[in-house]
Write a structure and sequence with these properties.
By secondary structure, the protein is an alpha+beta fold. The protein is built from 13 helices and 17 strands. The chain folds into two domains: 3-13 and 22-243, 4-Layer Sandwich (Glutamine Phosphoribosylpyrophosphate, subunit 1, domain 1), CATH 3.60.20; 255-370, no CATH class. The chain has a five-stranded antiparallel β-sheet. Strands 5-6-7-8-9 form a five-stranded antiparallel β-sheet, covered by helices on one side. This is Proteasome endopeptidase complex.
Length: 373
């Protein structure tokens, strides 16, 4: 089996596992202010902990409408205790704010001389079970001081879970994109070198961001030491894809870029719904779409298929040549649009009115252009 087919199969399995769950559909007003899901990835190394997260907040796992591309998903509880979250962003933020405040008084509240990660995890778990219908999960990561030494620990905390993990070099994941990140990490993990793990984490987080509609925005990696933490990496998804494109040519061999001109299309929840519905009906083998970038001119989507896209792209080019003799889209006269983008084939779907949708085959050069369009 080729790698492209393997990626397609694992992607379809993950999609099926998600679609089997039932989610309550909400109106746009109910979505407002609530954030959901993410990709959290944590790896304990010999003398450090690497914490990876993205910054996208969506209004629901099934719908995937983006509320914020630069949301706070990583929280500092103390100098050597961090937390990353998935689920309802507001509830998780309130929970961790409460935990951080409680950790200031270990003696008064817990009769403990030291506010360690175990206390933080217990406080978080109690909060989850105190709040009615708490809808979130946190990975609490840090160092527990014992005698004169520090020991790395992680806790997965939710209403029904308080799970401790401390296995070195094991991928600990959370959020809707966690399955993707875990799959990539396990497939490509070769050794236990800290630098190799750091590079692998960036790619695993990227893999989740380009296949999970609820993951994306900024990819961050933070290093957590016993006496403090600092940020190692902070880049938008398209930039990360540009830097690592050679590693992703195969996973994206069954995908196309789709560009939506901002002057023609306002990014809305309703548009997202319509894109999925129309593409499902129009394109044989269509799987799903993921927004991977939003800049001054375009919303950039990756359109994923469960089949080879060569013939489909040829059909799109033929349709474009036919339309180009009759229509002239506005982006062709916009001098701020890169010439490489203006050269892409575009088509019109009656379901989206008279506006034009651009398509392109993923490639290193096109990704470079999309980072700046």
């Amino acid at each position: 089996m080729g790698m492209a087919n393997a990626y397609s199969m694992i992607n379809q399995e993950l999609q099926n596992s998600v679609s089997e769950k039932e989610y309550l559909e909400k109106t746009n007003q109910e979505f407002k202010g609530k954030g959901r899901d993410a990709t959290n990835l944590v790896v304990i190394c010999d003398d450090t902990i690497l914490v990876g997260v993205n910054t996208r907040v969506t209004c629901g796992q099934r719908k995937g409408f983006i509320l914020d591309e630069k949301a706070k998903k990583l929280f500092t509880i103390s100098d050597n205790i961090l937390a990353v979250i998935a689920g309802d962003n507001n509830q998780c933020t309130e929970m961790l704010t409460y935990v951080k405040e409680r950790m200031k008084y270990p003696v008064e509240i817990h009769r403990e001389p030291y506010a360690g990660i175990r206390l933080a995890a217990i406080e978080a778990w109690r909060y989850c079970n105190f709040v009615t219908k708490f809808d979130g999960r946190a990975l609490i990561v840090g160092w527990e001081k014992k005698d004169e030494s520090y020991h790395p620990l992680t806790y997965l905390v939710s209403t029904s879970e308080l799970i401790e993990k401390s296995t070195p070099y094991e991928a600990l994941v959370n959020g809707s994109g966690g399955q993707y990140a875990y799959f990539y990490y396990e497939v490509y993990k070769k050794g236990n070198n800290r630098e190799e793990i750091f590079e692998l984490m960036k790619r695993a987080l990227l893999f989740a961001a380009i296949f999970d509609e609820n993951s994306g925005g900024i990819i961050r990696v933070v290093e957590l030491k016993p006496l403090g933490h600092y940020e190692l990496y902070h880049q938008p998804v398209l930039n990360v894809l540009f830097y690592h494109y050679n590693d992703f040519a195969t996973p994206l061999s069954n995908s196309l870029f789709s560009l939506w001109y901002n002057s023609d299309y306002e990014y809305t929840h309703e548009l997202n719904e319509r894109v999925h519905d129309v593409f499902t009906r129009k394109f044989s083998g269509y799987s799903h779409t993921v927004v991977v970038g939003a800049n001054r001119n375009f919303i950039v989507r990756l359109v994923h298929f469960n089949c080879d896209v060569g013939k489909l792209y040829g059909d799109l080019e033929w349709y474009h040549k036919h339309l180009a003799t009759q229509l002239r889209p506005r982006h062709l006269d916009d001098l701020t649009v890169h010439s490489e983008v203006r050269a892409l084939p575009w088509i019109v779907f009656e379901e989206f009115g008279a506006s034009h949708i651009l398509f392109g085959i993923p490639g290193w050069k096109l990704v470079e252009v999309l980072c700046n369009v």
